[in-house]
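Hmm, how's this folded?
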Amino acid sequence: MKLYNKSISKLLLVLATSIVLTNCSDDYLDQVKLGQETSDVYFNSQEKAVASVTAAYSDLKDYRFGWFFWAFGETMSDNAIYSGSDGDNAGFEPLKTFNGTADMFQVRYKWDLCYRGINKSSQAIEGIEGMPDELFESVTFKNRLIAEAKVLRAFYHFELVRAFNRIPILDHLIKGAGEKIGQSDASDVYAFIITEVEASEPNLPVKSAYSANDLGRVTKGFAQGFLAKVNLYAENFEDAKVWAKKVIDSKEYQLDPDFAHVFSFDGENGIESLFEINFIESLTEAGATTNNGNFQTLFQIPRNITYGYGINQPTQDLADAFDAAGDVIRKEATLLTTDEVYANEIPQGVWDWYNTQTDSQVANDSLDQWKAQLTFNRTGYYQQKIYVGPDDRSTEIRNNPNNTRIMRYAEVLLTYAEACYKTTDEGNARIALNEVRDRAGLADVTASGTALLDAIYSERRLELAGENDRYHELLRTNRANILPYYSEAHKYWPVPQAEIDRTTGEIEQNPGY
């Protein structure tokens, strides 16, 4: 178990975190807070520059960011249901059935957390850019810090545009309440993201150049892989192909031979990892917003038989998709079954007693009482990729130290396969696709035409299930109409009503709401 061993895991509160997008009339918002170090004087050492960039990472760790990372990416799709208690499930049902409203807290959290991360990133960028070069060990290091923050700012924009479509682009630090910024079309947002990351990529180190203490920071490989992904969304398929190929040719990454190992503690920041959110078990910090652990584990592990909430349960449809493909390896590493929950969570002593009983009725009645502790089990499956077993589980329920994987080499290969297909390079599309399938123990795909594209789409689902992309992928590929409640008018979330109310028309509601 990891204790205090991840250098960028500390949740730094060294910078202002609020984000003001619009023209609020309250004059007190424009006052200087007495006794607090302002941005103008804060950036006076390399140590503080590093801290400012680390602060920009911290919103990735906020439990509300993670919460609506998977709630949107997985439970809006055919991969999972929201589940949890009856209240939990009912609270998300309007979004699942495409009847969400602009005053829902889920919508507000997604918007607010991403823009808070954007503003922290901008604060780091502008603060560091204004610092004399001689304050740094090298200009190269200074430029690296700026590049990290720019990629983070781009990533937060990416999360927003996928959820809300038209959003304000913030390419600078918002310092006052009077600045008015309207929304931009998704195509312009993607263009901004691409420009930001392309400018940053040359100044980032390759993964192998980082020390162990810096693993988890943005690398050249992640910037390249991210550019491949964003260009896929923007339908710039030639560019997506080029950037994915740069990752492949770098030889910095390879598929882990053991798929399940990728999601273990030992597999963190491993040979397949381009970027992941690092967490630690910090036993002295246990609050919802004052800890460095992975709150998402608590959300998703089984309910009441342990301390989990039992949310984000995989569907039978996903299980059937694995079975239809003959995909045993990835199914076992992705789906935790009810029987496995019982085997893991019921104490071994109970099983030992059960196995020695000669009266089967007594034995079964006793075991059933233990099994009954598992409640609100709506599908029979849980998320294996984020599950932490009893031996490794933190006693502080919000502080489990397992990382969240953001991008893996397998995804880069599948992005390359799709980009190759879209650029009439079916040969290389099959090679990349089959490299991923080979690790899963599946036969090579020999198809061409639309059958090949369907195989790539299917592979993305099975390979990346539970990793928070499925709904976005269905939208991107115009296949979201397979969802039972799908509404074209509500395919994006509504803009938070509170954000609209604070403006004089700069921020508009999405069509259909």
In short: DSSP finds 20 helices and six strands in the chain. Residues 45-200 form a domain with the Serine Threonine Protein Phosphatase 5, Tetratricopeptide repeat fold (CATH 1.25.40.390). Confidence is low (pLDDT under 50) at residues 1-35.
